[in-house]
Amino acid sequence: MGRTLSPIRPIKAPKAASAADCHTLEQLPNVGPAMAGDLRLLGFQHPADLRGQDAFTLYRQLERATGQRQDPCVLDTFMAIVDFMNGATPKPWWAYTAERKQLHGQALG
């Protein structure tokens, strides 16, 4: 008799293939709603605003803004999205882990 409705799930926006195709923060590869919220907390409203940014500086700014230590994978994600907006091909955030460890390993203690 009664019909059970399935929960409404948000449709994930397609990810941009290039920086030129990226018009919302949620279109950035590796960025979901929570990371988009973190970027907005830092004052970013458009992906183009990330060009030329320093991922490590963004990471530390997010720690200050939230008052909490952030997982190092957040830095990997910042590295991925800044690189992407600077013209690199999209890569998963974990493709930056080795580089992050080499550059910033001691600084994340």
Written account of the structure:
Pfam families: Cdd1 (PF11731). With 109 residues, the protein is an all-alpha fold. It has a single domain, classed as DNA polymerase, domain 1 (Orthogonal Bundle). 39% of the residues lie in helices and 0% in strands. It is built from four helices and no strands. Helix 2 packs across helix 3. It is globular, with a radius of gyration of 16 Å. The model has no long low-confidence stretch (mean pLDDT 89).
Explain the layout of strands and helices.
Blueprint: H1 33-41, H2 55-66, H3 72-85, H4 97-104
Helix pairs in contact: 2-3
Descriptors for this entry?
single chain; 109 residues; mainly alpha; DNA polymerase, domain 1; 39% helix; 0% strand; globular; Cdd1
What's the number of domains?
1
* Cα Rg: 16 Å
> What would CATH call the class?
Mainly Alpha
Average pLDDT works out at 89
Alpha plus pi helix count: 4
The end-to-end distance, rounded to whole angstroms, is 59 Å
- Coarse shape: globular
Largest sheet: none
What level of helicity do the residues show? 25-40%
How many beta-strand segments? Answer: 0
- Under the CATH scheme, the architecture is Orthogonal Bundle
List the secondary-structure elements in sequence, H or E.
Answer: HHHH
Instruction: Could you tell me the CATH topology label.
Output: DNA polymerase, domain 1
Structural class: mainly alpha
